[in-house]
Specification:
alpha/beta, 6 helices, about 15% strand, 5 strands
Length: about 150
């Protein structure tokens, strides 16, 4: 799987560890930064390019880490075609993909430990979208918000 990863200073250390873990598991990892710990950096500078690559289909999934996960999630969800969520427990890590076709996992580097972060990434990567009719119907309604003049689903 081709996975993008990004973080600001609040998630930098967590990102570095997760990127290494993903590579060791055989995934292709595209690191969108930060490339160094810099307390003055801003999460949109790293999250938005990663989210755009997910939206364009250049990446299978994305992972964004900031201090709480919230800012990264807000930024990622501004990109059409991205379905990001802050996830700090295992049920949502798979259910978000299975039912809602979540393609970007956001988490807080200051909120959860590395053990849980590793577990959530594994669950997220393993999960697959089910594509039930009710899920497609709901996602079509959300997609219309991104393109209100486009064709109705």
């Amino acid at each position: 799987m081709r996975i993008g990863i990004s973080a600001d200073h609040g998630g930098f250390r967590r990102k570095e560890t997760l990127a290494r873990d993903l590579r060791e598991a055989g995934h292709e990892v595209v690191d969108f930064g930060a490339t160094r710990l810099a307390p003055e950096d801003d999460y949109p500078d790293f999250v938005i390019p990663m989210a755009r690559a997910v939206s364009r289909g250049e990446l299978d999934r994305g992972i964004a880490v900031c201090g709480s996960g919230v800012g990264a999630c807000i930024a990622a969800n501004k990109v059409p075609g991205v379905r990001a969520a802050v996830v700090h427990e295992s049920f949502s890590a798979h259910q978000g993909v299975e039912d809602d076709d979540m393609n970007v996992l956001c988490m807080g580097g200051r909120v959860i430990g590395i053990g849980l972060a590793r577990d959530l990434v594994k669950i997220f990567i393993k999960a697959r979208y089910i594509g039930a009719e009710r899920h497609k119907r709901r996602l079509a309604k959300v997609a219309r918000l991104e393109n209100p003049k486009g064709p109705a689903a």
